[in-house]
């Protein structure tokens, strides 16, 4: 193999890891939420909330670590709102999640103008720099942790039972709504972390539309990964690979318009999900208010 | 594991005093006193909507009464008619849910498994703790539900229609378990419609009607007739008489093959003639569902099938296949008939004729509902089933597939449904009746086919219908 080809492959793999990371976080968030029985269509909005808040707090304090923590908190807050709407008020989960997406996107765009007086993008703030690799590693640690929690702890068993038959959970003397609320808050925190990685991990600004549908790609990864933490992680890497691939191809193929290549990860998601129709089974009570 | 100290025989285990519970428009329970004693099997019987389930749920603690007190000498367990299990978890995980044994931060799976195995052994229930619940037959799922309650070592165990979904052999073994349990001091109350089971296994009977207890019997000194009269508050509704009809074939299958595995059909041949009820007898799981699905057009099949265009179908599971539970009675009446010219006005559903149809069903079948616009899911099981049966008979179909048409409903509703089927037969409909209750087959069918392992093991008609020989064929022994 030529050294140029070898370098290309290293670039591709490195980029794959980086591009997968925010999707892994959001997809893990999707897994925990859906296993509890709440469809989290608001993952995209929670990523936006995390991405923007991370920039805001990093800019204010000069500490990207505080920015990351704030991003997690923002996601968790949006998760709480969705969870509260889905459990206490029994709002249709798709409607509530879509609301969160709209509010987060609009709110971030508005806040850019309000706080920085510059629409479209924030000024540069202090970011993680090369330390972002730590967050890449933590993504995999989170997958392992979530796997352990879901399959080996009492809480995980109860969450899984809740996504299948919340009535049975209630009859066992437990609180299905509380379980779901916690699961969705956790889901938001993970998606917020994914968003924060996008803004002050990979780069050092927030710009409108920077999540670019990754929350929805993460939802596809949840399904592709059959609602398991490792499955969703693998699916996120699969989609991340196509995103990385289009970056690499853009530098080498001139006859295909860049826009067409940018569509690659979305096309991959489309085909992956279309190929699975009828072959996978969602948690039985997924999306049904209790 | 420390066992609960058993109560002395006949010690009071549960005392209900002056229980009242009203819902908008109906008084479900209107002042009930009831005592359960340790070691007894108490049967609570009554028609649909008499308030039995509400009372059981009050005793269990799931429903808060408007007035009255509940005193229990220990934990109260309730086994639901519709099991509340988690299909994709294993047996032991279902049983131990909420009380998981731990080792550090993890669930101690081995301890959970052992606990369930021991519990099953002590109660004479055979079960594999690691099996996934949704892969188990219904009778075994009920054992899981029972084990889950037994794990809590209840002083009082309430069972809501426990045998509604069970095959005869399963019913026997179920009652063996229950009798053992009572012998060890648990107070048991069975909410049921099946009066012959009441007579065979209970020690006392309480009859509910319109939210009140209208009669109490010692089982040893009463009869099915006496209990049934108390339930309906007068004489029993008579099942319609069959009349002579002309025998033109309406429905037939030749060499019908469908399904896979143990429930596959291997080449069925039979016909159903106009004005005839053909009963398919057999133990559940011998291909009846495959046959029904093939006739309903839900699964592909090989071979020939002659099915008239106007066919009415009564599916086995009214919740999953018969009704959309959160739709109104009117909307459910249209369901599956929306393409018929009579149900449409242009490209729209004809709401007026739908309402007229729903009214006709409500009247013919005595459906008790606050209005035709209430969700079907708010009705009792018997009323739901009446809607399903009524819909299938709308417009006088030429052929009717009736799969377990009286499953889990009370004697009054069952007699009504059976009468309407016989009336449809007398009017010339060809009816294929699939039932796991041999009594129902013998009461209704002109001809009986016994199904065993996907094949017709025997045919009986007229004077040749012989309960004993049919039972033998159902069990798989040749005659």
What does this structure look like?
The complex is a heterodimer of chains A (290) and B (479). Chain A has 290 residues and is an all-alpha fold. Chain A is globular and about 60 Å long. Chain A has helices at 3-36, 43-61, 64-87, 93-116, 132-152, 154-164, 166-171, 176-202, 214-224, 229-250, 258-262, 264-274. Chain A has one domain (21-132, 150-274). The N and C termini of chain A lie far apart (58 Å). The model of chain A has no long low-confidence stretch (mean pLDDT 93). The mean pLDDT of chain B is 88. Chain B has 15 helices and 22 strands. Chain B is an alpha/beta fold. Chain B is 32% helix and 27% strand. Chain B has three domains: 12-232, Rossmann fold (3-Layer(aba) Sandwich); 238-310 and 395-479, P-loop containing nucleotide triphosphate hydrolases (Rossmann fold), CATH 3.40.50.300; 324-394, no CATH class. At the A-B interface, helix 6 and helix 7 of A face strand 7 of B.
Strand arrangement, major sheet of chain B: 5-8-9-3-10-11
Q: How many domain modules of chain A?
A: 1
Q: Give the percentage of residues in beta strands of chain B.
A: 25-35%
Distance between the termini of chain A: 58 Å
Spans of chain B of at least 5 consecutive residues whose pLDDT stays below 50 are none
Question: Total number of helical segments of chain B?
Answer: 15
Q: Give the count of structural domains of chain B.
A: 3
Q: Say what the CATH topology of the largest domain in chain B is.
A: Rossmann fold
Average predicted confidence as pLDDT of chain A: 93
SSE succession of chain A? HHHHHHHHHHHH
Annotate the secondary structure layout.
The complex is a heterodimer of chains A (290) and B (479).
Chain A: H1 3-36, H2 43-61, H3 64-87, H4 93-116, H5 132-152, H6 154-164, H7 166-171, H8 176-202, H9 214-224, H10 229-250, H11 258-262, H12 264-274
Chain B: E1 12-23, E2 26-37, E3 41-46, H1 52-60, E4 67-72, E5 76-79, H2 91-96, E6 102-103, E7 106-107, H3 109-122, H4 138-150, E8 156-160, H5 168-183, E9 187-192, H6 195-201, E10 204-209, E11 212-218, H7 224-232, E12 249-258, E13 265-273, E14 276-281, H8 288-296, E15 301-306, E16 311-314, H9 318-322, H10 329-334, E17 344-345, E18 348-349, H11 351-364, H12 381-393, E19 399-403, H13 411-426, E20 430-434, H14 438-444, E21 447-452, E22 455-461, H15 467-474
Parallel strand pairs in B: 3-9, 3-10, 5-8, 8-9, 14-20, 14-21, 16-19, 19-20
Antiparallel strand pairs in B: 1-2, 1-4, 6-7, 10-11, 12-13, 12-15, 17-18, 21-22
Helix pairs in contact in B: 11-12, 12-13
